[in-house]
């Protein structure tokens, strides 16, 4: 991508909810983690066009950069080449990586008015856990999610279970799961009780289990992990036992991408997946389904997930002020309501849920409220310095235990030793 020449000086900008008066024309690059096309891209483009229409002195080039991994790689490449975008949506867990590269700016430096500070402090605290460090705010929640439990109400009826009552505890997930397993005349399983994906980024759904067992995988400073904590070992043993001991889940690695399809086709009666699949399930499930909080053990709990807005160094004051204004606008109640309704991602601000649009949406589709209500029990997604290396180590440990290559205790002890070797330099 050829660099865009910018010679704009600092400009005074009057911040407001929908329009801002810019003294000079401003051109922004905005990297967004979706492929071209689809509901997410269409909605982002529509919102971007709406902002530009209200602010004709601002031009925004929305670059649809593919997956989250593709997006952060492209941003890093552009930044190292001296052509960083002004803003991008990147995984919240990449905050420490971006800080380590000295690429991002704290939003506190831009939120100087009382209105700005009210906006900055208006997000759900659980989402801000992956957005702040060292007393500064580096990420603004936008495309955020949390895992929830989906269940097939028809399968529950068939198994003699109350179709409106999902499992509330680990024990109930096992007992209900056993009743939901369906075998053919040859003894082969046609429908499993539950499906918890363990491919791609298995640490995320596993964090549901570890949080429910009342243990946190990493500290807030991103420089220490607790992988070998006995409570983490116990949570991994439970995950392994769902297949090996209790027989309610298919053995081996369970694919993330194929899980919704397996649910639609009746191959599993329950599944754990992101609330970001809510719209997909609503459109494609050929049966009545329910959405509930993940079952509890020592406590309720789930990780947050998804992407934050970041602003990057290397641009003019005018560009950065315009980028801040756009981020403030698009995360406002009316705009984030449009985004949530179109995609199923969790609206990250309480004010969004009070809009007429969201009230009408949730009145028509109450399951959308589950993820919001679960935020009370949510914790930060696993995030550390050298995050990709650390999560790969942890994912490998989970795989080793799930496939029976190592015991949970052996796998997690080894993972902790490897993580310590990497993170000791950041303490």
Automatic annotation (TrEMBL):
Q: Which SUPFAM superfamilies match?
A: Periplasmic binding protein-like II
Q: For this UniProt entry, which residues form the secretion signal?
A: 1-23
Where in the cell does this protein reside? Periplasm
Pfam families to which the protein is assigned, alphabetical: SBP_bac_8 (PF13416)
Alphabetical GO CC annotations of the entry are:
periplasmic space
Question: Which keywords does UniProt give here?
Answer: Signal
Can you tell me which family this protein belongs to?
Answer: Belongs to the bacterial solute-binding protein 1 family.
The protein depicted here goes by the name: ABC transporter substrate-binding protein
């Amino acid at each position: 991508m050829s660099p865009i020449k910018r010679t704009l000086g600092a400009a005074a900008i009057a911040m407001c909810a929908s329009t801002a008066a810019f003294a000079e024309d401003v051109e922004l690059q905005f990297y967004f983690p979706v492929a071209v096309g689809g509901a997410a891209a269409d909605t982002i483009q529509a919102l971007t066009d709406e902002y530009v229409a209200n602010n004709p002195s601002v031009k925004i080039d929305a670059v649809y950069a593919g997956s989250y991994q593709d997006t952060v790689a492209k941003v890093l490449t552009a930044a190292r080449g001296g052509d960083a975008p002004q803003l991008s949506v990147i995984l919240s867990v990449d905050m420490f990586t971006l800080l380590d590269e000295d690429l991002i700016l704290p939003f506190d430096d831009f939120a100087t008015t009382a209105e700005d500070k009210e906006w900055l402090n208006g997000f759900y605290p659980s989402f801000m856990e992956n957005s702040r460090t060292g007393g500064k705010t580096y990420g603004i929640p936008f495309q955020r999610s949390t895992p929830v439990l989906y269940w097939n109400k028809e399968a529950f009826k068939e198994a003699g279970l109350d179709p409106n009552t999902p499992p509330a505890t680990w024990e109930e997930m096992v007992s209900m799961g056993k009743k939901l397993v369906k075998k053919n005349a040859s003894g082969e399983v046609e429908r499993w009780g539950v499906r918890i994906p363990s491919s791609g980024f298995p640490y995320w759904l596993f964090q549901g289990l570890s949080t429910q067992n009342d243990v946190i995988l990493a500290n807030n400073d991103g420089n220490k992990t607790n992988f070998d904590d006995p409570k983490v070992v116990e949570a991994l043993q439970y995950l392994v036992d769902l297949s090996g001991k209790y027989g309610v889940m298919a053995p081996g690695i369970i694919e993330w991408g194929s899980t919704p399809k397996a649910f639609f086709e009746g191959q599993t009666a329950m599944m754990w997946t992101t609330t970001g699949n809510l719209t997909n399930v609503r459109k494609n499930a050929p049966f009545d389904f329910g959405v509930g909080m993940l079952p509890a053990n020592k406590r309720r709990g789930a990780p947050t997930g998804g992407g934050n807005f970041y602003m990057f160094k290397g641009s003019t004051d005018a560009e950065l002020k315009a980028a801040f204004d756009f981020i403030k606008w698009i995360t406002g109640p009316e705009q984030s309501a449009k985004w949530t309704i179109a995609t199923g991602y969790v609206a990250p601000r309480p004010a969004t849920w009070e809009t007429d649009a969201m009230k009408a949406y949730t009145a028509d589709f109450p399951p959308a409220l589950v993820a919001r209500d679960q935020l009370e029990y949510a914790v930060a997604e696993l995030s550390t310095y050298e995050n990709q290396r650390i999560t790969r180590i942890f994912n490998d440990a989970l795989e080793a235990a799930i496939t029976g290559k190592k015991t949970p205790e052996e796998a997690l002890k080894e993972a902790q030793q490897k993580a310590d070797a990497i993170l000791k330099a950041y303490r």
